[in-house]
């Protein structure tokens, strides 16, 4: 009996949608199964009473996001729909906000760093610049930083480098514990995306690209896949109470979920899957009756609140500064990101209690917030962001060199790159691996089809 589909993709986040898009372009019959009632995963946005609320990812970059920009161009999305944010990232220290974090200008402006720490930051920038070609975000296991954790790397420098730069950036944007995650992927990614002043957003919500991709695909939402089993060169999926067969399956879900669904995965896959751990993320969206923001000498898009200063919040995002259309005229929208140390308790608490705790903490930085905040929304992802532990870094090489099989994987964790660009690149790579197996061998004299991305040329 012939399979029901050429390819089944499990998960309609950015990785799954990119995979399905590439395979559909190649002429294969593809269906995407998504457990939630919506597409986008951690790139989802929703609309409420004139507000556009980003549940997960917050920004992209004008540089270092080549695969994303190629998709946007292919789908006809104009650059005006991906505007530059333009405002600064600040860090809280000594009772006030210091602008310029995540920007090389911090060497001169300080951005909350002491003079000695600024000197050490200049040393780091010079060292990374001299090894620029070796810091490849697609191959973080090959960098001169080795498998040092961010905390181990920081011990070479003034304490401020860790406490007021590496830790707040890693803790807010990556959701990482600097004692657990390797510094190499972090440095590689920061070098690629460039200064925060060049970061961009999607005009109509961070799910713009996901929605556009889904428009041309067969996506079944509200459909949970319980198991995938390889049978004589094809794959059987248990979807709800039904069974579906496909010539190939791509698991575009977090690594722990993929390992559970594909319990019979070969050892060279399970080794990396088991090493790819995730940190939970949680944040609260505050719909305001006026556009409040942390006080600073420069307008802020994000205020980082380091562990050394706060144990409840990791950052405050000023969404109406990110783009004015995020809130109705004369209104405001703030996102309060929970500190990793507070998330375990918050995940099990009632949503109202969670919102009240974060709002109470944020009022220290944004006076008047409690009185101006109306409706709150809590967004939690148990598998929020992939960690890049030294163990995962060591096991990635063999995983990327594994043989092509009926079950493939996609997700930002494959690239050890906690960003939507990592998801897009992994989707292109998964599609190329599927095509290398499903396409018949080229016959002599037949025209060569267009080349597909591989791990080596996906960057």
| Overall structural domain count | 2
Chain-averaged pLDDT: 93
Q: What oligomeric assembly is this protein in? A: single chain
Q: How would the global form be characterised?
A: globular
Low-confidence stretches: 442-459
Biggest sheet character: 7 strands, mixed
Q: How far is it from the N-terminal to the C-terminal residue, by CA?
A: 39 Å
Helix content: 25-40%
Protein name: Dehydrosqualene desaturase
Keywords: Oxidoreductase
Biased composition (Low complexity): 435-452
Pfam family, one: Amino_oxidase
List keywords for this structure.
disordered C terminus, 18 strands, FAD/NAD(P)-binding domain, Polyamine Oxidase, Chain A, domain 2, 16 helices, alpha/beta, about 450 residues, seven-stranded mixed sheet
Q: Please, could you describe this protein's structure?
A:
The protein has 459 residues and is an alpha/beta fold. The chain has 2 domains: 161 residues, FAD/NAD(P)-binding domain, CATH 3.50.50; 191 residues, Polyamine Oxidase, Chain A, domain 2. It has 16 helices and 18 strands. Strands 1, 2, 9, 10, 11, 12 and 18 form a 7-stranded mixed sheet that branches. A 7-stranded mixed sheet has the order 7-6-14-15-16-13-17. Strands 3-4 form a two-stranded antiparallel sheet. Strand 10 and strand 11 form a beta hairpin. Helix 1 runs parallel beside helix 8, helix 1 runs parallel beside helix 16 and helix 10 runs antiparallel to helix 15. The relative contact order is 0.19. The C terminus is likely disordered.
């Amino acid at each position: 009996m012939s399979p029901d589909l050429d390819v089944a993709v499990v998960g309609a986040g950015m990785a799954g949608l990119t995979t399905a898009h590439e395979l559909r372009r190649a002429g294969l019959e593809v269906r995407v199964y998504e457990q939630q009632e919506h597409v986008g995963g951690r790139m989802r946005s929703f609309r409420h009473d004139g507000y556009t609320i980003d549940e997960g990812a917050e920004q992209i970059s004008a540089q270092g996001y080549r695969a994303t920009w190629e998709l946007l161009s292919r789908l006809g999305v104009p650059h005006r729909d991906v505007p530059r944010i333009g405002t600064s990232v600040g860090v809280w220290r000594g009772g006030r906000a210091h602008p310029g974090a995540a920007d090389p200008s911090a060497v001169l402006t300080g951005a909350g760093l002491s003079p000695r720490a600024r000197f050490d930051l200049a040393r780091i920038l010079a060292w990374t610049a001299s090894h620029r070609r070796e810091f490849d975000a697609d191959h973080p296991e090959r960098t001169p930083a080795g498998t040092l954790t961010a905390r181990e790397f920081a011990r070479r420098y003034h304490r401020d480098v860790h406490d007021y730069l590496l830790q707040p950036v890693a803790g807010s944007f990556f959701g990482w514990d600097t004692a657990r995650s390797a510094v190499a992927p972090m440095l590689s990614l920061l070098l690629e995306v460039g200064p925060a002043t060049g970061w961009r957003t999607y005009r109509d919500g961070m799910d713009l690209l996901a929605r556009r991709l889904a428009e041309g695909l067969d996506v079944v939402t509200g459909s949970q896949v319980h198991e995938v089993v390889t049978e004589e060169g094809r794959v059987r999926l248990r979807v709800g109470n039904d069974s579906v067969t496909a010539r190939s399956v791509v698991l575009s879900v977090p690594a722990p979920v993929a390992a559970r669904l594909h319990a019979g995965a070969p050892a060279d896959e399970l080794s990396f899957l088991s090493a790819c751990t995730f940190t939970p993320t949680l944040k609260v969206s505050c719909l305001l009756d006026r556009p409040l923001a942390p006080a600073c000498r420069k307008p802020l898009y994000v205020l980082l609140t380091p562990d050394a200063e706060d144990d409840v919040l990791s950052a405050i995002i000023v969404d109406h500064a990110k783009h004015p259309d995020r809130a109705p005229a004369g209104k405001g929208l703030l996102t309060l990101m929970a500190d990793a140390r507070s998330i375990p308790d918050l995940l099990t608490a009632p949503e109202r209690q969670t919102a009240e705790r974060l709002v109470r903490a944020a009022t220290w930085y944004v006076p008047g917030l409690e009185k101006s905040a109306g409706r709150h929304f809590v967004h939690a992802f148990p598998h929020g962001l992939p960690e890049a532990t030294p163990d995962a870094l060591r096991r990635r090489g063999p995983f990327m060199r594994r043989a092509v099989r009926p079950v493939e994987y996609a997700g930002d964790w494959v690239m050890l790159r906690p960003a939507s660009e990592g998801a897009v690149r992994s989707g292109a790579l998964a599609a190329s691996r599927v095509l290398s197996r499903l396409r018949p061998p080229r016959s002599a004299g037949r025209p060569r089809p267009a080349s597909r991305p591989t791990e080596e040329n996906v960057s």
